[in-house]
Write a structure and sequence with these properties.
This protein is an alpha/beta fold and 234 residues long. The protein is built from six helices and 16 strands. A seven-stranded mixed beta sheet has the order 1-16-15-7-4-2-3, with helices on both faces. The chain has a four-stranded antiparallel beta sheet with strand order 9-12-8-13. The radius of gyration is 17 Å and the shape is globular. 44% of the residues are buried. The structure holds arabinose-5-phosphate.
């Protein structure tokens, strides 16, 4: 555990339920992507059905579709100045609350929405907790289709092992019309340095490294939810 983190347990028995306390009447809410985020969206939809007034900003077409089916009003991102809270999942969480995201392919929109949010709440099971980012062996990187092989060579030069993500025999296409290179990696000792090196590569649109962004991590431990809160300077 690091100095800037406090840990406790919550009364709610599930992370999607626990996350509801961060969403109040009138909130603008960033809606993440993936299983954990979908469970949160469904729980939020139940509150909207009983009269809660919120506006959602979706991080993917899939989350927008789910929100619509639940009658959660969506607002265009460019029509709001700030997002009160974003709730999303993650693929890895280190003890400082740094994340790897993007196994679900929505990393770029997720990062833009998270960066515009006053609070980022992450929902994970304990299997996502790692001692060092990269421990699960994969870092998703979204790249422009143009010159993808050249971009992949730059990634290789950084010691990564990029593999194009495939879907039904073709390169996976993100909501932004780009591709994903899933970069084989071992534990990443210097994630800030790696992020800077990745962002300097022409053709890289975004990476799955979400460093010092999460304010709250809710961890499902059996029937209990552990709450980790991080102090961030914004
Ligand atoms: C989507 O691009 C991802 O960043 C997801 O948030 C992440 O993969 C966690 O997804 P699950 O909750 O489905 O594990």
């Amino acid at each position: 555990m690091t100095d800037n983190v406090s840990s406790g347990s919550a009364m709610a028995t599930s992370t999607p339920e626990c996350a509801q306390k961060y969403v109040g009447e009138g909130s603008v809410v960033g809606l993440g992507t993936g299983k954990a985020a979908s469970a949160f969206i469904r729980a939020l939809g139940a509150r909207v059905a009983t009269g809660l007034n919120v506006r959602g900003i979706a991080t993917s077409q899939a989350s927008a579709e789910l929100a619509r089916t639940l009658h959660i009003p969506l607002v265009e991102f460019d029509r709001v100045e700030a997002i009160d809270v974003t709730v999303d999942g993650a693929d890895e969480v280190d003890p400082q609350g740094n994340l790897i995201k993007g196994y679900g392919g929505a990393l770029v929109r997720e990062k833009i929405v998270a960066a515009a949010s006053k609070k980022l709440v992450i929902l994970v099971g304990e299997e996502k907790l790692v001692p060092v980012l990269g421990s699960r062996g994969k870092l998703p990187v979204e790249v422009l289709p143009f010159g993808m092989s050249a971009t992949a060579r730059h990634l290789q030069a950084l010691g990564l092992a990029p593999q194009p993500r495939m879907a039904e025999g073709k390169p996976f296409v993100t909501d932004n019309g780009n591709h994903i290179l899933d970069c084989g990696t071992g534990p990443i000792p210097q994630p800030t340095e790696l992020e800077a090196n990745l962002r300097a590569i022409p053709g890289v649109v975004g990476t799955g490294l979400f460093l010092t962004m999460a304010d709250v991590v809710l961890i499902q431990r059996g029937e209990q939810v552990e709450v980790r809160e991080f102090v961030r300077s914004r």
